[in-house]
Amino acid sequence: MQRSKEFRVSAPGMPTDTIIGYFLGGFGGLFIIISIIKSILTQGKVQRVYGVLMVSALIMAFTGIVFSVIGYRADNGGITGKKMAIIMNGVVFGLSIIFLLMGL
Predict the structure, then answer these.
(1) How many domains does the chain have?
(2) pLDDT digits (tens, 9 = 90+) for 40-91
(3) In a domain, 9, yes or no
(4) Which one, of 32, 35, 91, 39, lies nearest residue 65 by Cα?
(5) Residues 101, 87: Cα–Cα separation, whole Å
(6) Environment class of residue 41 by beta-carbon count within 10 Å: exposed (0-12), middle (13-18) or buried (19+)?
(7) Among 33, 38, 92, 102, which is least packed by CB within 10 angstroms?
(8) What is the domain range of residue 58?
(9) CA distance 40 to 35
């Protein structure tokens, strides 16, 4: 019996696009948390840089949604991780929209 050298078993990995989506959503969420904490500590009198952090969180979350959807369409990886990347970026996007409209 001859062994086939082409046969390999590997664990399914997560697509790179989904991983990028996780990083973008995580950093966007971190920017929102920093802005909220600073706003609470200064009773709403924050510098403009925290507004820039909110806008960058919005842009990062939107980009993260795009990357997560691209990763969702990829063949490798589990569906749960892909859906969580989309949900996380959607939550960060929604929160940044709400806080920007409220004038944080």
Answers:
(1) 1
(2) 888 877 777 888 888 899 999 999 999 999 988 887 777 888 889 999 999 9
(3) no
(4) 91
(5) 21
(6) exposed
(7) 102
(8) 14-100
(9) 9
Q: Which of 43, 32, 48, 42 is nearest to 97 (CA)?
A: 32
Query: Is residue 7 one of the residues assigned to a domain?
Result: no
pTM, to two decimals: 0.78
Q: 31 is written with which tokens?
A: 């920017």
Structure tokens at 104: 């944080």
* Nearest residue to 14 (alpha-carbon basis) of 66, 70, 87, 57: 70
CA distance 57 to 30: 8
Give me the long-range contacts of 31-34 (CB less than 8 A, separation at least 24): 31/56, 31/57, 31/60, 32/57, 32/92, 32/95, 32/96, 32/99
